[in-house]
Design brief:
There is one protein chain. The protein is of the alpha/beta class. The protein has 4 domains: about 160 residues, Rossmann fold (3-Layer(aba) Sandwich), CATH 3.40.50; about 110 residues, 2-Layer Sandwich (Transcription Regulator spoIIAA), CATH 3.30.750; about 90 residues, Transcription Regulator spoIIAA; about 55 residues, OB fold (Dihydrolipoamide Acetyltransferase, E2P). About 35% of the residues lie in helices and about 20% in strands. The chain contains 14 helices and 20 strands. The chain has a 7-stranded parallel beta sheet, sandwiched between helices. Strand 14, helix 13 and strand 15 form a beta-alpha-beta unit. Helix 1 crosses helix 6 and helix 9 packs parallel to helix 10. Bound molecules: 5'-deoxyadenosine and iron/sulfur cluster (SF4). Iron/sulfur cluster binds next to helix 7.
Length: about 475
């Protein structure tokens, strides 16, 4: 067993070529297959696209069937216990497969792997996992895999944060029209419940010219819905200081000619500026959609969460956003049952969602994360009680969403047509506000923007009909 640490600096063409030969020989000329499964957030999805880009260069094709695979890789998420349990469950289920097919190589990467206790558990209890690496080690994936395959030893490569931003990694994008583009990595906020700053390290931004050049390439390749990614995009450009803040970066990208939409996530309310909202309002391409997690509607809880804003500041941001973009669609993340939260404090969260009327919400029950400040706070409310609050919150949001959907009936929306749903005989797409709309139409329209009149809202799904272009 070896603990390997490599510096994160670009991928190694020679190693990739050697791996290509090794797998080709192993498969006697047949194409080796990789099964890559991603848990968690869009950043993980983007990371997996880079890993798959490297695998592609090594000669791999991809399969959805783990049984067929020569390499199985799980890109894991540490944000909540539930996410981790699913990973352990699924890794446990591979034991039999490994017994039947000892040649298969099992690898785990992502945020979970940065936690000491997780790595230890894998070392001890999952001996058939051959390769473990954390997010900082992604550029070194070919070298790590090479060691694993040629030395026939288990490789654990964790840590290795250099503060550098990896550039020039290959990529295999999953979407045809929708693309993810990372603009920054890491997080410095240390919200008291959150494991992310511990596993993804300090904030660091990509060079704006590198972002612009990748962005141009995406537009030229026909991508129509490009989401800029970062744990806290509003801190873009602070570290290192490129003299370009996030609003300025958006304005640079917005100038690229073409028919496309820009989205971004996630925004932290403490750094969300009027300049950003004005930039959105005045832009040609930025969707009027803002994902702005509020986490709690109660000031004491927000303070305990180390969020650095209060309810009034959040509502003021929302009100300014609506003033400059009356059609803006707001979405958010919220945590129920933070340690020490009372029912009355929880009700402030319910009233906030009713006041703001979010298009949709990601709701979570607080999950203690080892090593975070909140994990050592007294947490007297029983899980069953938190579950009841959670249900109450979901019900309140369902009513809000149903009201908002009903209000959309009769409006005409510009929709990016994404795919055909053969079962329904309909096309499906998303509005600028990221709301799903189903409607009849020709599958050849996939990948184009169309105007759709909303005719019905049922179970929070909008249905509609194409509005023929003017002059038809
Ligand atoms: N427990 C529950 N939810 C959490 N989130 C982050 N950490 C935790 C935790 N320990 C939620 C927050 C964040 C989203 C990505 O996940 O709402 O915005
Ligand atoms: Fe976690 Fe807070 Fe950073 Fe978001 S801003 S990743 S919730 S620490």
């Amino acid at each position: 067993m070896s603990e390997s640490l490599f510096s994160a600096a670009g991928t190694d063409r020679q190693t990739i070529e050697q791996l290509r030969q090794i797998f080709k020989t192993r498969k006697r000329g047949e194409v080796p297959l990789a099964f890559v499964h991603t848990y968690g957030c869009q950043q993980n999805v983007a990371d997996s696209e880079h890993i798959q880009g490297m695998l592609l260069q090594m000669g791999f094709a991809f399969t959805q069937d783990a049984e067929q695979a020569d390499l199985i890789l799980f890109n894991t998420c540490a944000i909540r216990e539930h996410a981790e349990d699913r990973v352990f469950g699924n890794v446990g289920a591979l034991k039999n497969l490994k017994r039947r097919c000892p040649e298969v190589l099992i690898a785990l990467c992502g945020c979970m792997m940065e936690q000491e206790h997780v790595a230890e558990r894998i070392k001890k209890s999952y001996p058939y996992v051959s390769l473990v690496f954390g997010p900082h080690q992604i550029p070194n994936f070919p070298k790590l895999l090479f060691t694993c395959v040629t030395q026939h030893e288990r490789v654990f490569a964790r840590g290795g944060e250099t503060g550098e931003v990896p550039e020039g990694l290959p990529i295999r994008r999953e979407g045809r029209f929708k693309a993810w583009l990372s603009v920054m990595y890491g997080c410095d906020n240390f919200c008291s419940y959150c494991i992310v700053p511990y596993v993804r390290g300090r904030e660091r931004s990509r060079n704006p010219q590198a972002v612009l050049s990748e962005f141009r390439g995406l537009v030229e390749a026909g991508y129509k819905d490009i989401t800029l990614l970062g744990q806290n995009v509003n801190s873009y450009g602070k570290k290192p200081d490129y003299g370009v803040n996030f609003a300025q970066l958006l304005r640079m990208l917005d100038e690229v000619p073409g028919d496309y939409r820009i989205r971004f996530m996630t925004s932290h309310p403490k750094d969300c500026t009027r300049e950003l909202l004005d930039t959105m309002a005045g832009s040609t391409h930025i969707a009027h959609h803002l994902h702005l997690p509020f986490q709690s509607g109660n000031d004491r809880i927000l303070k305990e969460m180390n969020r650095h804003y209060d309810r009034a500041k959040y509502l003021e941001l929302v009100s300014y956003a609506r003033r400059v973009m009356p059609d803006i669609s707001l979405t958010s993340d919220v945590i129920v049952g933070f340690p020490g939260e009372t029912y009355e404090e929880f009700l402030d969260t319910v009233s906030l969602i009713q006041e703001v009327e979010f298009t949709s919400l990601f709701t979570f029950i607080y999950s203690p994360r080892r090593g975070t400040r909140a994990a050592s706070m007294p947490d007297p409310v029983p899980a069953k009680e938190k579950s009841r609050w959670f249900q109450e919150l979901c019900k309140a949001q369902e009513a809000v969403a149903a009201r908002r959907c009903a209000a959309a009936v009769g409006t005409v929306q510009r929709v990016l047509v994404e795919e055909e749903i053969p079962k329904k005989g309909l096309l499906t797409g998303r509005t600028g506000g990221n709301v799903v709309v189903d409607f009849p139409g020709d599958p050849a329209l996939c990948g184009t923007f169309q105007h759709v009149r909303i005719t019905n809202a049922r179970n929070w799904i909008l249905t509609g009909e194409l509005v023929p272009p003017a002059g038809d």
